Every structure is written in C-alpha cells, then in structure tokens.
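pasting input
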Amino acid sequence: MEHCLNQLTSNVNGAQLLQQLVNGLTLGAIYALIALGYSMVYGVLELINFAHGDVFMFGAFVTVGVVSVFGLHAGSGLAVVVPVLLLALVLSFLVCAVLGFSIEKVAYRPLRSAPRLAPLISAVGVSFVLEAWVATFVSSRSLQIPELLPGSIKIFLGVSISYVQILMLVVSVLMMVGLTVLVRYSRLGRGMRAVAQDREAAALMGVNLDQTISFTFIIGSGLAAVAGLLWTLLLPVGNVMGFLAGLKAFTAAVIGGIGNIPGAMVGGFALGLAEAFGASYASNLSCGFFNSGYQNAIAFAFLVVMLIFRPRGILGATVSDRA
Amino acid sequence: MTLADINLFDRGTEPLVALGVSALLVAAVYFLPQMAAGRLKLIRPVTPGRRVGAPPPLRVLGRVIRHPVLLLALAALAPMLSVYLGRNADVTIIFGVATYVMLATGLNIVVGYTGLLDLGYVAFYAVGAYTFALLGSSQLYPILHRTIYILVPAGSGGDGLHISMWLVLPVAGLLAAAFGALIGYPTLRLRGDYLAIVTLGFGEITRLFAQNLFQPINITNGPLGIIQIDPIWIADYNFGIRHELFGFEYPAFLNYYYVILVVVLITIFFVSRLASSRVGRAWAAIREDELAAEASGINTRNLKLLAYASGGFFGGVTGALFASAQHFIDPNSFGFFFSILVLVMVVVGGMGNIYGVILGATVVGLAYFYTGQFGSLRVLMFGIVLVFMIIIRPQGMLPSRQRQRELATADLTVDIVAEIAPPTADPEA
C-alpha cells in the first residue's frame, strides 16, 4: 500500500496534470461535437439515435478516402494539405448530411407514432447496416492516415500542444458557437426549440414538423462529419469505431443534460477530462488493480455516479422527467 | 486503402443471393397475408390505436405455439430428427435457439411486462456463466490453494471447487438476480432512455471486468477465458459426452438441449403465472403509467427491483447452462451485440406476450445461426431485415393482447389530434 502511494505522489506533477488537461480537452471536443447530434435529435424526437455514431464513422472514412485519393503523405506541404482537408470537410459534411437525412426519412419517420421501443430497434438496425456495409465493401481493418500537420507548441514545463490539437479545439469551438447562434436566433432554430418543447403544439402553431426534424438530422450529422474528420487527423479509423465513440458521446450528452445544447458541450469536455485523468491515474490510485483495460469503463462509471447524484445532468435539462 | 480498392462483389455474388432469398422468406411471412387481403401498402405508419390482428400464417403459428402438447412434441422431436438425418451441426444450433428462448423470456419480464428498457441484459448471462465457470472448474484452484489450502488440499481428489451444476444453478440465478437489483437500484428514479443507456453501460462494465480481472489476482483468466468447465451429471449419466440409448444417438448438445427444454418449460410456467398474478398486474400498471401506479398504492420501487431481479435470475440460469454445455467461456461471448440480439427477439416476437417472445427467439435465432457463414454480410442483412420488420409491424409478430387493448384505448385521443394536426402524437410519451 505504502509502495503504491509513493508511486502515486512521485507520478503527480504539475506538468503531467496540465498535459492531461490538454489531452482531455481535445478528446472532449470530439465527444462534444458528436454529443450535440445526439442531444438535438433527442430534444426533438426523444429518440436515442443509435446510428449517429456510425454517421460519425462514415465522416471519418470519407476523410480517409479523400486523403488517400490525393496521395497525401507525412511530408506534404501545407499548400496541399489545407485545400485537401477543406475538400474532405465539405465532402464528408455532404455525405453525412445526406446519410442523416435519409436515415430519418427511411427508418424513423414511419415510426413516429409507433410504440416507443420501435424506433430504437430501427436505429439499432440502421447502425448494423452502416457498420456491416463498411466492413463488407470498404474495409474491416483499422486504418490510419499519415501525420499531416506535424509539430507542436511547447507551452512550458514540457507541456506541449500539437497543431492538430489546436485545430481540434478551434474548429469544435467554432462549430459550437455557430450551432448556438443558429438555434438561438434563426427561424429554424426557433422551430427546433418549439418542437422539442411540445411537438403537437409546435405543429399547431405552424412549425413544419417534418422539415424541422429533417434539418435537425442534417445539422447533427454534419457536426458528426466534422468530428470524424478531426478524429481521423489524430487517431486510427475502423468500421466499429462509431459504436464506442457514439456511446460515449451519448453518455456525455446525458452527463451535460440531454436535449440541452450547452449541456452537450460541457458533458463532452467533462467526459474527455475524466477519461484522460482516469487513464493516467486510476492504475496508481488503485495499486494497479484498475489497469488501462478499464479505460472504457470510466465513461460509464462517471455516468452512473452522475445519475445517482444529479440525474438531470450538469446543466439540468428540462426533459429528464419525460425521458 | 484508397476508394478505388472498393470492390462491391469481391466475395462473389453467392452469399448475396442466399441472403436475398432468406430476406424474401422473412418478408413473405409479413407480406403474403396482407397481399392476399389486398391491402398491401409497403411503408405505412402504424398508428398504435389500430387493431391489427396477426396475419393468418402467424395466427396459425400462434395457435400451435399456444397448444402446449403440440409445442412440446415439436420441441422434443425437432433435434431428434436432425440427428436422424445425420446433421449434428443442427443440434448445436437448436440448443443455441433454446438458450435464446430462455433469455428472451427473461428479458421480456423487464422490457415487455414492466416496460423498462434494458440494453445490458448480457450482464446477467455473463454473471451466471462466470459463476458456474468459477465454481465448476479448476480456475480458482491456485487462489484457494494459496489462501485456504486447508479446505482445499492439493491432491485430495479435487483440484478446484468442482461444485455440482445442480447446486450452482440456483446460486448462479440468485447471484444474477442480486446483480439485477444492484443495477436496478441507481436507475430507479430514471425513466426510458436514461435507463437504457445506464443498463448498456453496466453491460459493458461487466464485460470489461471479465476481461481484466486477471491481475493482480487471476480470477477470470482475462481474455483467454476459462477452460474445462464441468459437464452436468445425473447419477452416472454425463451430459457432456455422446451417448447411445435405445439404439439412438445423443450428442452432447442434444443432452443439454433436453435439460434446457425442461428449464424453459418451468420458466414459462412460472413467468406466465407471475404475469397474471398481482405482481404481474402491478408491473403492467407501472408500464402504462408509473405515476398513476404509485398513486394507486403500488410500491413501484420494490416492484421494479423485483422485475430486474426476476429477469436477471433467468439470465443467470441460462448463462450457467451455457457455460456447462460449451465447456469454455471467454469475455467475447458477452458483448453488446448479444444484448441487442435478445432485445430484437423480444420486440420482433411481440413484447409482453410470452408466446410471441418464444416465436421471436426461434425465428430470429434460426435466421441468425443459419446465416453464420456470411460474416459481415449477415449483419448487413440482419440490419436491413430488422428495420423493415419493425416498420411494417412495430408491435411484433404476436403482440400481447393486453398491450393492444391498452393501445386501442389511446385511439380516441390519437384520432382527435389527427384531425387537427398530422398524426405524430406519441401516446406513451
């Protein structure tokens, strides 16, 4: 016992804490972007869109495809990398938006008035289709693109933040700000909020229900595409990546308060930080019992604790009672 | 990888054709009766209030299933026939389907009767399987020998616990039931989808523990799994090996099939009695309106915990039987896909109706096992069939009559809303 406490204290230093903070925030940014899609769809339809994680996976695969078609490699200059990544962004946004739109149209719309479990099963079916389609016709292996944006900024004390991480943070914060503006000030956003509050009343007040729901899916899927692109820059891509990432993102949405857009962001960052710190300190804290194999359990443990002490989420959504 | 590598038919067209045919067969069950009646609309929104009777073939099937003697004869003779035809692989599949029937029946208590969505049912199955694997194999020997070696001396006939299956079976069930109550407790205040995600999380945590609980102390043997799990014995009859009785062959899985058949019958008896008891009515009340149920004096907390515990019990028993029949378990058998598969059986069969659930488990289980050689294409077809089945018939093949009546009473409000606005009201919201 004393031995591992010594190990713990020797391992904790300011630099490492800060480094984990940076890593946690970037991971959290991706979770937050995916969580927004879950949260918005849940807000308007009260449906866990299980296929959302796989839409994210599609976004990542489109990016991998574009990068390999243009033959980018680790030494490619910025003059090539930037336009190709922008093209990848546009393409994956389009592919995912079309995908999200069609999924809603085919799999969820006919079930809007069906028993509650039916759309959930349908969502699971869509998720299987997307995962298996990629495994069968594209690749079932794990792929990683070369490092396109090498280099990092040293802050101090050996804490460094890579350009990719900066890009992730900047892009995701921009996306979140954009979404908040959209939802708060546009006509479409007003419609979305109205549908989330009361679907029938919104329809009676002249909100075009089908259109609003379709747009919600398009925007959510687009955000997932952006998350997919950012993920691809740093981490390997595989056909089953959507399941766990999606699950954690949904957890993040619940932690933040589901149906609540700032909540999804807060939840994403909280979960990213919890994972980064958990992965580096849990093993020492428990004398080696909780090794790195438990890393994926951190999100769920966090979720359970959260639900016991604050079931409405950090930012307290109003729908928790109906959910 | 480039996008140019994508080859749509690199596996040949044969599996596609085979899967297409199987999909057509499944679809035919749904379409033909409606086509005959001349009212086929491909994708139509099914309003919950509409009283949709099962199509004729399903109705006949439902009648067969409700006829206990006929069902029993069918269940007992089907595997004998496949052994007679020399298709021993089918026996394994039939055993697998029987375990699914058992699991779907257990999950139906939680999802169908009480209306609590559980996406981590595999956790109970895993608890049962690991309970028997630990108590009925040599896995724990090193730990026991080191710590309490007086109780388990080396070379005294035993090299582990090797407790008999008949003792472990109820223990595994009770342990899984306790686990169910434990999982249920923090989720009591939550509803619907929150519950789903928490149960899903618990299911994954259970699997991660099975996978990682081998250091610092080796309990589950990690990803390698536990091997040489004891078979079941009755007197001198070892269920784990092939027997010849009365000039007939009994492979191991056939023996186990009959064990599980008996367990399934007992389960059906208990569960259907339970469903029509005071407890079952209270569960239905919680499902329909939890606030109203609580106001009518139902102790919703205890009854929800009871639902979890009973569902968990049957999952645990099945897991123990599975571990014994298979002789080997590893964490890969207990993934999220498994939970979903069982849930699909419940929903496709018809939530809340035990016979519907049995039918669902049989149909989905057979379809799943017999398409095994198609790899990821199987999952692809499985997903497509799933989406269309649920769109065409969201209430399942043989829906519960009680549930239909309850949904039918919601008809009135739906109609009123439909006159003013498009029919998008969710009466269960």
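fyi The beta strands of chain B are 233-234, 237-238, 243-245, 248-250.
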